[in-house]
Specification:
- By secondary structure, the chain is α+β, with helices and mostly antiparallel strands.
- It has a single domain, classed as 2-Layer Sandwich (Alpha-Beta Plaits).
- Helices cover 26% and strands 33% of the residues.
- It has a four-stranded antiparallel beta sheet with strand order 2-3-1-4, covered by helices on one side.
- It starts with a strand and ends in a 7-residue tail after the last strand.
Amino acid sequence: MAFILTRLSVGDYDTWKMMFDQDAPGARSAASNYQIRRNVDNPNEVFIQIEFKSVDDAKSARDKLLVSGVLDRFEDKSGPTVVEEVESVIH
């Protein structure tokens, strides 16, 4: 399993969420799941985790995001970073 991790300061969450839901670059077309988390002290800072079945799928999605330029509008960001799961613990 592989993931794209991204942190963004979106300015206005509701406006950003509408654009996120449109997925104009098609980056989530091969995704199996995604999660959005918000900073409790700054709800306009979001942490996005998008899940893929393979590293290749995640890299392809990351490339779509980068080529599309949709992330360029956010000055305060980190990612998109492709990571793979190496361990999962359930308590």
